[in-house]
Amino acid sequence: MRCTLGVDVGTSSTKGVLVTADGTIIATATRAHEVSRPRTGWVEMDGDLWWDEFVAIAAELLHAVPEAEVAGVGVSGMGPCILLADEEDRPVRPAILYGVDTRSTAQIDRLTAELGADEITRIGGSALTSQAGGPKIVWIADEEPDVSARALRLFMPASWLTRKLTGAYVLDHQSASQVSPLYDIEGGVWHDPWWQRYAGGIEQPRLQWAGEVAGEVTAAAASATGIPAGTRVITGTIDAWTEAVSVGAHEIGDLMLMYGTTMFLVATGETTLRTPSMWTTAGAFEGTRNLAGGLSTSGALTGWLRGLSGADYPALLAEAEDSGPGARGLLMLPYLAGERTPIQDPDARGVIAGLTLQHNRGDLYRAALEATALGVRHNVDTMRAAGADIRRIVAVGGGTQGQLWLQIVSDATGLVQEVPETTIGASYGAAFLAATATAAPDSVPSITDWNPIAHTIRPDETLGPLYDTLFDRYVRLYEASKEVVHELAAAQRGGSA
């Protein structure tokens, strides 16, 4: 049975799927893990864990379906992450994760002053924020010079797995475009003057597109994983972009909305759109550009409330539904891990306004769901103001399993959301990319055949005025509380998490 194997390293787990040539999932496997937060604003993960979990997942999948003939391997992972390794491919320190890690504020300020904000945007597409990879590399050089001196190669989860599987040292263009300001977005190459200035001791990875074949499984990797030697492996890319592929939301005019530990939005177009409050990146495929954004918490916020309350998700969702639109007068800012787009404020913090003794946990949970929905609206409005032509919205990720959350997002934004049949996410998209890369020219699969739209969520137009009012208050609440919140963040910073 011809299959492809897809594996995605996420923030809270690594997931793998075994998929037949027609898109049918025949086996799944998951390994849960946690990030490390050694200090306030630091979010890290052990890079060796990514490979260990890949090995375990591959063995489990192949054991579950012994008749599977793996034609290709797809890889994906959270990002942009900065994992530096030495000449023996040993990580020199834990990987620094994407925009939820906010330690490089001083480096962002310094690079912006040295290079100029306009020039950074012209070359790299985006202003430097906590999402950018370049300042994280500079932070390591500044704060851990002995560690930096041993660093020879740069990896992200997908490229780390590709390296382990094939020996290829490669990074996809999409991921590279988030190592700002070291990538030239219009030229599609590393910007050598800035690379030499800020990452000169690190070899530049070869650049490819996400769906291109990076290499073949080596004998050593075959022995470790059970995947036959010679099996082709794609280059892969960051999970949000692979999720967009998994639901067919990577065409011009598409917006992918990913419900996960964080919330991610990717709008695809043909031209480079620049705005200081969003991320301008290369697309997953040649000839495309993206305007992207992300909330720092979504599933992480609901998970936090679940842990505090001791209730399970079905109970919380039922109570939130009983609470009703507006959460009985509660309004929440979901910035418990700072916020990425569009406010780009690592010192933002969560706020709950309007709380009384009459409110219950269902009201809090409803307010949390509405907070993420208002955050989505804030991002979509900003994208459209920058010129994004959003014609179609596709929802993906674990949060799509709950109808209430989807409905609240549609009600709060006025957006129609298409939900595909399979929302397992990036691991499925990675398997699809592997299938397209290894298929015969006359049998290249289509994602619309693999994963058709299952249902559509339409906004309740009668709730439009309510959510217009809540959104206005949401924006004003951030501005009104920002000064005090920043003082609190300053007090938090520097202590152990």
Description:
39% of the residues lie in helices and 21% in strands. By secondary structure, the protein is α+β, with helices and mostly antiparallel strands. It has 2 domains: 239 residues, 2-Layer Sandwich (Nucleotidyltransferase, domain 5); 212 residues, ATPase, nucleotide binding domain (Nucleotidyltransferase, domain 5), CATH 3.30.420.40. Strands 1, 2, 3, 5, 13, 14 and 15 form a 7-stranded mixed β-sheet that branches. Helix 10 packs across helix 15. The chain is globular and about 65 Å long. The model has no long low-confidence stretch (mean pLDDT 95). InterPro entries: ATPase_NBD, Carb_kinase_FGGY, Carb_kinase_FGGY_CS, FGGY_C, FGGY_Carb_Kinase, FGGY_N. It holds the Pfam family FGGY_C. Keywords: Carbohydrate metabolism, Kinase, Transferase, Xylose metabolism.
